[in-house]
Amino acid sequence: MPETKYKKTEDFNEWYNEIVELADLCxxxxxxxxxxxxxxxxxxxxxxxxxxxxxxxxxxxxxEVYFPLLIPESSxxxxxxxxxGFGSEVYWVTHAGLNKLExxxxxxxxxxxxxxxxxxxxxxxxxDLPLKTYQIVNTFRYETKQTRAFIRVREIHFxxxxxxxxxxxxxxxxxxxxxxxxxRLFQKLCLPFILSKRPDWDKFAGAFYTISxxxxxxxxxxxxxxxxxxxxxxxxxxxxxxxxxxxGKHKNCHQTTxxxxxxxxxxxxxxxxxxxxxxMPPEVAPTQVVIIPIIFKGKEKTVLDSCDTxxxxxxxxxxxxxxxxxxxxxxxxxxxxxxxxxxxRIEIGPRDVEKKEIVLVRRDISEKKSVSLKSCxxxxxxxxxxxxxxxxxxxxxxxxxxxHRVKTVEEAKGLKGIIELPWCGKEDCAMEIENILxxxxxxxxxxxxxxxxxxxxxxxxxxxxxxxxxxx
Amino acid sequence: MPETKYKKTEDFNEWYNEIVELADLCxxxxxxxxxxxxxxxxxxxxxxxxxxxxxxxxxxxxxEVYFPLLIPESSxxxxxxxxxGFGSEVYWVTHAGLNKLExxxxxxxxxxxxxxxxxxxxxxxxxDLPLKTYQIVNTFRYETKQTRAFIRVREIHFxxxxxxxxxxxxxxxxxxxxxxxxxRLFQKLCLPFILSKRPDWDKFAGAFYTISxxxxxxxxxxxxxxxxxxxxxxxxxxxxxxxxxxxGKHKNCHQTTxxxxxxxxxxxxxxxxxxxxxxMPPEVAPTQVVIIPIIFKGKEKTVLDSCDTxxxxxxxxxxxxxxxxxxxxxxxxxxxxxxxxxxxRIEIGPRDVEKKEIVLVRRDISEKKSVSLKSCxxxxxxxxxxxxxxxxxxxxxxxxxxxHRVKTVEEAKGLKGIIELPWCGKEDCAMEIENILxxxxxxxxxxxxxxxxxxxxxxxxxxxxxxxxxxx
Lengths: 472, 472
Hints:
The structure is a homodimer of 472-residue chains.
Chain A: H1 12-22, E1 26-27, E2 37-38, H2 40-59, E3 63-64, E4 70-72, H3 73-76, H4 80-86, E5 91-96, E6 99-107, H5 112-122, E7 131-140, E8 155-165, H6 168-188, E9 194-197, E10 209-216, E11 222-232, H7 236-239, E12 242-244, E13 250-252, E14 254-261, H8 263-272, E15 289-293, H9 300-316, E16 321-323, H10 330-339, E17 344-348, H11 350-355, E18 357-362, E19 368-372, H12 376-401, E20 403-405, H13 409-412, E21 418-423, H14 427-437, E22 440-445, E23 464-469
Parallel strand pairs in A: 3-7, 15-16, 15-17, 20-21
Antiparallel strand pairs in A: 1-2, 4-6, 5-6, 7-8, 8-14, 9-10, 9-22, 10-11, 11-14, 12-13, 17-18, 18-19, 21-23, 22-23
């Protein structure tokens, strides 16, 4: 039985680094730093998250596509801000076999510059719009900061939706839909989040504006899980994505993107886990229920048969279930499955078989109860709902307790989490506060909030609130 | 309505090149040759094929993993034959941002050299064996020959299973299992295939032996869809993949791999299609049934309601169904869905609604019949079975008619398809025949077949049959 060296409640960062490997999510020993191996348990978890994303895409009429990984340097360089933003963090392919390529190709850091030359060919008329596509692929970024599994890696499992619209207004509708998608998706993952409109100097390279999706980690740092971008026609112009309108005029498309990454796993691990290991939300748990036979001599067959029958019953009811028949003690089995965060454990011993009962144990609160075999499917599904609700509530409570709206830098100092301060709108003032708080700007709240105060730096009237936090 | 320029029965290769784009499977206009864009319809088709593969992997206890795309040059160079075989066709990443990398990295052409250094860490004891893993990823090969969608591309959608075993015998059991998997999978795809043991000079770089999975395309050329490799301990030695046996001794693992690629789509398109377009086997058809309302003035609502009701009914019965309500003529709709190869078309007009009937049209044989609404689910599912059987039978008939076992080169000349000739076992003799027939060696039949003849080149007694064909 492996031992956990670190406690989440004592040293979150070390606990995190340890648990991702102990729980068999990934292996960090691959010989390229920041490129980790996805082990079966981690890959299953990611696949379940991808499944939820795909369900949302189907529901909102997005079509899945796949664009090549490699992008010619000339396609990449068409939008000026974009190349400035990404130029220093892309990987270059320069040779094929023994030959030098005529033009260098880069590994996609994101797919705007792969897709948009094609969109320019695909879109002719207003009847081709809106174009709503997405892909789930790996992207590559040359990270120079310290890497961390799922949170800061160099090969990134990535979701990216790209849409084209007749005008700004229709693109804005898409932004609204994206926010709704995030709401539904992160509810299922039990991850409350905040949406912030990034300041101009920190928006996506080429965007008109950027909304970031952030969660608060137990360390008090925020983790950005995704972003929604309004491009206006910033890319449509250089990539010539235009259409013939109903009145016969040629117009540029307006575009949006919505991106999320494997950081979602980082948040699932960090927000829900505890000192015993992972705690998986039932919606995405690779195994939702584990059955542990409690065997006494002479009663083996009765108990194992009963476990098998229950396994079939749960499986036929759409529950992801596993029977652990390994030849080790039940205690060791409990330890393993707690580490992996399986939401519900079922124990079945000879007396349970006699009484036609099972013992249900919740991973999140260790609550134990006997329930009748007959009604167990219904009860298990209720428990799933209840676990999800509790995970969400706990995370929401933590988020609320650690969001502070204050008026002066003095009040802000020493506060943990997300801090909102009045802001006049000038970059210099925000930078000054970043320095004092040793944090980063997250952006303004996206809903309009009255802020009749003064900027704590320059003393001029404030236009809005600005959020600051230490970030991953 | 787009027009097909080429007929499959007249110019197969041009028909193929045209249909992959007309049917919206891919777009070949991406600015890097041999790297095509997967359009939604093509991607869905590939996803359905992947789903069948994953089902087989689950059934046989393989675990899905994901290994990094990039491989350090030093990991790649550990197995001599392997680097010789692949060295000239890999892409090299040499720079990150503005920096030159200390060591070059290559894009995976296949993942042996990414996985095996890790397997060496994962495997300690005989209890860790067998290790059965797989991944579905893109691989990259610098093709210098002419590219062709799905058949010869430079970014390849790829399935690769990698297994480790205690000894050669256990690895041989895996080869048997792989052959069974291929049998079940290609049955569902209605693709009869042949298995050939590759000659030594043409086996996978580093393998002990290689079995290839080939189908015969309508052009008379074979298309290799996959291969199964027995590695013995050829890789285990340089990569130090060993384990402690029950008797305490340290031994090398024996390994196998099983690979398949997007060429499966090439075969689906080529083998089943016809002059009207694709013909999709029901198991993987992105849309299995399309409903076309036949609308007459005044009856629109009745017909459309009836279509919607049927749509819900079929969907709830697990059928992938679409209602085409576009404002174009039924004839144009037929044309579109025939091009895309949807297995069954349903037509519903006012008289059908009155009679509580629908008209069913099979894509493969254009057979039309009226069936009662009440029993239509059952009949549709029977039609799916019947279509699959017919597609398989037709392909099998073609394969059988075009496999020729002859004794002399004279008899072989001018024959189309796959030719089997007696073979003495020497490379030179096989090469001589390759030259005469302008074809390639496929390999020996994997089941032992008596061949008491003489080699048609050197006149010495033949050991076995050798297969030759023109290949893609």
